[in-house]
Task: inverse folding
């Protein structure tokens, strides 16, 4: 019985360690997601500034001029 209790205690400690590691990995994953979102926003801003891309337009907005292509209003 003593060996069973020891094995159970070791299993609990291992499970706790795995939960801690998973929590740390999730925190890192969230930080990476935020960094990627910032990177995307930066690339989008640079592309718009350089004229490679245009700001998105709202579909419900009335266009000011019928001659301009979408996204350039």
Result:
């Amino acid at each position: 019985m003593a060996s069973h209790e020891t094995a159970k205690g070791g299993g609990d400690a291992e499970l706790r360690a795995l939960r801690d590691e998973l929590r740390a990995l999730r925190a890192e994953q969230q930080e990476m997601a935020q960094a990627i979102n910032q990177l995307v926003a930066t690339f989008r801003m640079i592309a718009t500034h350089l004229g490679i891309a245009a700001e998105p337009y709202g579909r419900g907005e009335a266009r000011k001029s019928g001659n301009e292509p979408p996204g350039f209003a």
